[in-house]
Design brief:
The protein is α/β, with parallel strands linked by helices. Helix content is 46%, strand content 18%. Strands 7-6-8-9-10-12-13 form a seven-stranded mixed β-sheet, with helices on both faces. The protein starts with a helix and ends in a 7-residue tail after the last strand.
Amino acid sequence: MKKRSKFLALAMATAMALSLAACSPAASDPTDQPDPTTTPEQTGGESYVVGICQLAPHVALDAATQGFKDALSEALPGQVTFKEGNAAGDSPTCSTIVNGFVSDGVDLILGNATAALLAAATATGDIPVLGTSITEYGVALGIENFSGTVGTNVSGTSDLAPLDQQAAMIQEWFPDAKTVGLLYCSAEPNSQYQVDKVQDYLEDMGYTCTQYPFSDTNDMASVTQSAADNSDVIYVPTDNTVANNTGVVDNICRGAGVPVFAGEEGICSGCGVATLSISYYDLGVLTGQMAAQILTGEADVSEMPIQYVSDFTPKYNAEICAALGLTAPEGYEAIATEAAE
């Protein structure tokens, strides 16, 4: 009888433990969690919620997001919770993501890429918004005679590389080339801005330039084929659509023996021979530092000018160069690949 009583007591204790566990709140998404090593109470600071809307998953944007999170977490350890949304390349989805952030009452929004920035700027005039991986804010936001400071709740960092130096890079590699095709997505105003500028520089050098705009991925392959058929060299700016579809460009252009020069390293690693590019991780770090100043009240977002990373590195894609029989000029650094790492 004693054995049976002990058994019943043990069973009741187990049931009570399971019942208590079932009533406990479930763990939330790990992307919504602050740094687990410290808490606001331990640091003695306030807590903040930051929404991150990234247009698409690719190397450059991923690096910018990571740099942003690392810098902000370092500046405000244990005080920041991140809510993240990735639109998978679909611009309308950016609006859905940032509207959710606004409804949640986040303290700051990061728009990573132009579509994400525009969605955030449209969704709120009160919550501070920072952009990153944006080429030219005046073009992106439709501001004429842009002075460098937006003057509203929007600021951020630019990934604009020296376009004159990118044009000079093409001349350095191919001084005897005659025609340069400028390949880009016409739905991206910052891409249009870049190719217009690069075309001016190249034409001053004596090249004949033709723009090859495609509207979206549906006509990308056919336009790329036309560019490859009619160009000695192709230039691609920091274009998000190309960045998500470098395989299309590489299959056509490498097969045709036409070298591609890219506006940034992520695109170059997928389809280019060379680039003059910034570090997108460093760009994200710079943006995170701006965010920390805004959150702590050290700076007013409306008074913060757009900031730029100052270091640019000439790099080349060893695999594509080897396939095309090209040797990089002195001073170029090979782009790291997964195999090399």
